[in-house]
């Protein structure tokens, strides 16, 4: 019995003509479903994202539990949701584009390879790999400024060590006063002091993180969902989507941690002072001061947070995609 093909990122069902709001391989539903899944992932994952950012780019935290206790003691439960409004508004759009680009690129490559523009041919690993790489590149263009603003807002209440005052301080005179009053003020401050290029600080590190990261995100999800789903089923159940999506997220975020540390440090750099001149300088300084282990700081919280975030992302994506298309490939077991 031939293996059936999942919906969404795993492509349309075998033998079924694509149904979308545009002709050929392009389907707008993928973008709409990505927006819904993105919003779900932000709500689920932001508290642990704050902990991850503080561990990687902050000072005074020894481990994950210590960071959680410190944030709660100093800022209450609201500290874990600091900077969430901007990601909630923007990352939903960001995920919409990433999932839309991946799904449509993968579908386009498969159809070009088979020469059947009105069919849904089986995909290959090369199709998935190239589509994931395209999605990774696009993600940097859209997600760079979003990540930067989120991290600046998350980091601005960090203890400012006196030892750092010898560097180029921007707001040392402000004491404990936050550097930014919100997302809009943060954007305006960065553009005023660093220009438009300042919004893409850490973009090279993000590119090195996201291109392989999305390959280890979409590809495991596609194959895990197919492997878990019985051949007799038309498509993966919600439980399968949840499990495969969560595992893919844990794999992707866990392996992306070294470059995520570098990216977080580069983007947090500039809240109070300028410390790094680029990716290589950040890697060099971090290694000299803290050793190799610094690049795996936050790997546990990254993997743990990656599971529920990605599970919510893929589940929201797949279920909303089925609702938009009016079919029922994803059904309860």
Low-confidence segments, ≥5 residues, pLDDT <50?
1-7, 11-23, 160-174
Give a short account of the largest sheet: 2 strands, antiparallel
Shape: globular
Could you tell me the mean pLDDT?
80
> What's the arrangement of strands in the largest beta sheet?
1-2
Total DSSP E strands: 2
Proportion of strand residues: under 5%
Number of helices: 10
Give the N-terminus to C-terminus distance in angstroms.
20 Å
Find the structural class using helix and strand composition.
Answer: mainly alpha
SSE order: HHHHEHHHHEHH
Helix content: 55-70%
Rg measurement, Å: 21 Å
Which structural traits does this protein have?
10 helices; mainly alpha; single chain; 2 strands; two-stranded antiparallel ribbon; 333 residues; 1% strand; 63% helix
What's the helix and strand layout?
Blueprint: H1 29-57, H2 64-75, H3 85-114, H4 125-155, E1 168-169, H5 183-194, H6 203-228, H7 238-255, H8 257-268, E2 273-274, H9 279-290, H10 299-325
Antiparallel strand pairs: 1-2
Helix pairs in contact: 1-2, 1-3, 1-10, 3-4, 4-6, 6-7, 6-8, 7-10
Task: Describe the model.
With 333 residues, the chain is mainly alpha-helical. It has 10 helices and 2 strands; from the N terminus they run ααααβααααβαα. A two-stranded antiparallel sheet has the order 1-2. α1 crosses α2, α1 packs antiparallel against α10 and α6 runs antiparallel to α7. The N terminus is likely disordered.
């Amino acid at each position: 019995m031939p293996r059936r093909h999942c919906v969404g990122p795993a492509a349309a069902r075998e033998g079924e003509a694509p149904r979308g709001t545009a002709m050929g391989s392009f389907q707008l539903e993928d973008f709409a479903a990505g927006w819904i899944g993105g919003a779900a992932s932000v709500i689920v994952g932001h508290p642990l994202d704050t902990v991850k950012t503080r561990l990687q780019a902050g000072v005074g935290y020894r481990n994950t539990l210590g960071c959680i206790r410190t944030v709660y003691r100093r800022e209450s439960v609201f500290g874990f949701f600091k900077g969430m409004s901007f990601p909630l508004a923007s990352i939903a759009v960001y995920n919409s584009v990433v999932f839309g680009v991946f799904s449509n690129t993968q579908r386009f490559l498969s159809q070009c390879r088979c020469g059947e523009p009105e069919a849904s041919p089986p995909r290959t690993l090369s199709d998935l790999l190239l589509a994931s790489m395209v999605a990774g590149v696009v993600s940097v263009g859209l997600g760079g400024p979003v990540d930067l603003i989120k991290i600046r807002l998350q980091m601005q209440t960090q203890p400012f060590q006196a030892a750092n005052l010898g560097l180029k301080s921007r707001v040392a005179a402000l004491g404990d006063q936050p550097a930014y009053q919100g997302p809009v003020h943060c954007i305006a401050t960065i553009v005023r002091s660093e220009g438009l290029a300042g919004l893409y600080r850490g973009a090279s590190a993000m590119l090195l993180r996201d291109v392989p990261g999305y390959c280890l995100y979409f590809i495991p999800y596609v194959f895990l969902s197919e492997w878990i789903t019985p051949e007799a089923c038309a498509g993966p159940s919600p439980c399968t989507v949840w499990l495969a999506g969560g595992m893919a997220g844990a794999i992707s975020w866990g392996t992306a941690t070294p470059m995520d540390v570098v990216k977080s440090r580069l983007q947090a750099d500039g809240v109070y002072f300028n410390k790094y001149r680029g990716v290589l300088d950040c890697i060099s300084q971090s290694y000299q001061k803290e050793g190799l282990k610094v690049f795996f700081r936050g790997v546990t919280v990254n993997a743990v947070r990656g599971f529920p975030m990605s599970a919510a992302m893929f589940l929201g994506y797949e279920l909303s995609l089925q609702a938009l298309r009016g079919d029922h490939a994803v059904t309860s077991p």
